Each structure stands twice: as C-alpha cells, then as structure tokens.
Amino acid sequence: MSPIPAELKSRRSIRKYQQKTVSKQIITEILEAAGWAPSAHNAQPWRFIVLTEPFGKRNLSKVMADAWAEDAAKDGQKIDKAIMSAKVERFATAPALILACFTMDGMHEQLDQKRQNVERDLALESLGAAIQNLLLTAHTNGLGACWFCAPAFCKERVSKILKIPPEVDPSALIAIGYPEEKPLAPQRKQLDEFCFKDMWGVKF
Fold first, then answer.
1. Which helix (H) or strand (E) holds 155?
2. Neighbours of 12 (CB within 10 A)
3. How far is residue 164 from each of residues 18, 30, 50, 76, 86, measured CA to CA in Å?
C-alpha cells in the first residue's frame, strides 16, 4: 500500500508572507495545474483572476472588508478599526491574490429548477477540485497559500469592482506568497470519525 504523498500532509494554510514577488511563470504553472482538475461533464467551469498590482489588491480588500463590517453591524457586533485595518492588510499585502470563480457555461441545461441547482452544485464541486490542485502545486513550488471564502459573501461588490461578466460567479480568494510562518499541523479527524464504522458492508 502506497503511503499518503508527503505534499498532502505537509501543506499548510499560510496567512503571512515574505514581501517577495512571485514570478508570473510560477503563477502560470499553478493555474495550469488547476486546469487539470476533474470536472462535471468535462465543462471545466473554473475561471481565475490574478491580482498582483498593489492598487487592485487594496481596492478589492477594502470592498470585502466593508461588506464584512456591514454584515457584522447587522448582527449587532461592534466594529473595531484595528480589526478592519487588519482585514484589509491581510489581502492587500499578499504578493498575489487569485480570485476563483465558476460559470455555468458548459454545464447541462435543465428545465427543472431542482436539477438545475444540482448542475450548479456540480460546477462548484469542480471549482473545489481545481482549487485543491492549485494549493498543492503552490506548495510544491515552495509557496504558501490560503483559501478564503470572503468573496462568496459579497459577490455583487467583487464583480462590480473587478468588472467580472455577469455569467461568472466569484466564489473564493486564494492568497499566495513565500511563507513567513511555519504553522503546526492542525488536528485531523481519524478515519472512523468521517467514515462509517463498517465501511465495506454498511446497509441503509
């Protein structure tokens, strides 16, 4: 039995980066790896937008932070300026940001809304596979990365500021750079915690 590849166990979610440029060549290789992920109907519904220019990164960061603050205020939370600033700086200072989006282009058209919702789920699952390829390839190139879900909470604002076509749906943001931290491995659930105890003969 082959062991679990070392890259799977050694990858970490990295949130602090050296202020060192990530080359276009490496980012291109990472995106090409994402494009080799499996997808429903082979539709390859993922779409990626790369931001490396400071002005663009900061503007996007500010839009997402403002949306977060508005949501927090609605929940009755007190907004601290220091926290707001930290949220902006987290993304604005990352050497590269990759916005992960999906489209229904190439997915199957369904007359029934329930089945059409399933097609959307399949597109999202396909994007998740592409993001995993992206994260692992970044790691094998000596980079750190972290998958954030912030765009999913303010899709319209993200689409507006980046002028994303209406048929493309922003879903996640991946910050990338050379690591400036070495976090310990987080606790993982054991196999019997996420699989049925009788995995080979369970009956429903």
1. helix 155-162
2. 17
3. 29, 22, 12, 32, 26
Amino acid 3 reads: P
Helix H or strand E segment including 171:
strand 168-177
Sole residue written with tokens 């932070």: 65
CA-to-CA distance for 127 and 37, rounded, in angstroms? 8
Q: Which two tokens stand for residue 177?
A: 């750079």
3-state SS, residue 71: helix
Question: Would you call 172 helix, strand, or coil by DSSP?
Answer: strand
Q: How confident is the model at residue 198 (pLDDT cuts 50, 70, 90)?
A: low
- Going from the N-terminus, what domains does the chain have, and what CATH number goes with each? 13-180 (3.40.109.10)
Distances in Å between the alpha carbon of 196 and those of 2, 157, 202, 204? 23, 42, 7, 11
Match 């995995």 to its residue by tokens.
199
What single letter denotes the amino acid at residue 32? Answer: E
> Cα-Cα-Cα-Cα dihedral of 15, 103, 66, 96, to 10°?
30
pTM, entire model: 0.93
**How far is 140 from 52, CA to CA, in rounded Å?**
21
User: Does the pLDDT at position 82 exceed 80?
Assistant: yes
The yes-or-no verdict on residue 46 having pLDDT over 60 is yes
